[in-house]
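Let us practice reading a record.
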Amino acid sequence: MSKINKQLRPKAETPKGFRDYFGYEIIRRQEMLKIISDVYELNGFSGLESSAIETVDALGKFLPDIDRPNEGIFAWEEDNTWLALRYDLTAPLARVYAQFRNNLPSPYRRYAMGPVWRNEKPGVGRYRQFYQCDADTVGSASIMADFEICSMLSDALEAVGILRNDYIVKVNNRKILTGMMEVSGLFDPKNLDHKLKERGIVLRAIDKLDRLGKDSVSDLLGSGRKDPSGDFTEGANLSDEQVSRILSFTSAKGNTEEKTIQNLRELVNGSTTGNKGVEELSQMLELSQAQGYFSDRVTVDPSVVRGLGYYTGPVFEADLTTEFFDEAGVKQTVGAVAGGGRYDKLIARFGKEDVPATGISIGVDRLVYAIEQFDKISANKKPLIIIANLISDEISTYLNIADQLRLEGYACEIFYGSNNLSKQLKYCDKRGASAVVIIGEDELKNNTISIKNLTVGKELSKNIDSREEWKELKAGQFTINKDDLINEIKKIFI
């Protein structure tokens, strides 16, 4: 008898580089996004939800890894057209504005929130799908628009609970970087293709400065770098003098903002483009200081370059600087949670003329993680009340109680399953419930309700040594008249 083939069963696992989000994570993200969107709307920005799928041509080849531009996206061919999941929210905005510009105000201020996808090598804390929250101004070349983006980012971080001195918004200008490359022999204004590959390597190397350190970046600017795994990354093969000049640029920050500006001006001396970038940076600094966004909130930092290839002017990055201890007891900092800049040539791909634009993108997952470490958002978790289901014939009573609680704005659910109270309390604990409403035979007879404050109960239980003592005290539990339910619940959650 031939062997019957066993039915293959799929392995229950999340695909590599992706993750699943559960209830409390979604709630925290939603809460944070609501706060941020309120800040954006206060500044006159309106929402936009664009398609998650774009044509590959519309997205463009602007990912940091220009050596493999088609491999950085999830793409497929359909009806002789290549489609792809969006890798950010900026490229879709360019398409939307080009398509609907006659119906949109100018300047057009929009914010957008949603997932993006990048076909990159996953790692610890590095996912192929992640959430972004963007704000952009399209149609204004004014440096005021760039300042507004930075000040609004600062306001948004503080609104979600990040304290002043726990973050910093760092500002630079890509024109200064271009000027530095010009005086280093890597850029020719009359031949834009001159040393294009080398400039791409330089850009990516500088963008990794915080993560890799000065020595590794120096290797990438030179002959190349071999990482701890043995993988080799090709270098820009610059001369020692060129490497030294570029590293001088990244370390040009002085002990005052004015000194930094002076250092940058000296480094790009001889480049018209570089000097223009320094002047724009100086103007942003003046605006920041005039509006009270001093160096403890917004600061000039030459090491900020941003990896995407479409930036043309001011670039921004927000870092969280507070130290915390991870689960292993190792001291950590979150680092960058937002980045962006000016991209005046992106929309021109769809037409003949340049359209000025500037914006910022917040890494939502990273910011939520940071807020959790700083204990800023857990206190805002919406309390959940669970109604114990002890008597099958009294489901209408439980439904009535649930309706009362929901009308008052409390999240509430009725337990469906075993009538065993012990099992139901275990369920409440797993759900992270704040309180459980109990109506059994005794409560029905006396027109009362028992409420178990699970948060208080946990605290009281820490000081109880025996099960008998716990049973006697009924930690965190009390009985009230049925008509007093809402008033008593309000007392618990004041």
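A brief commentary: The chain has two domains: 23-191+251-378, 383-492.
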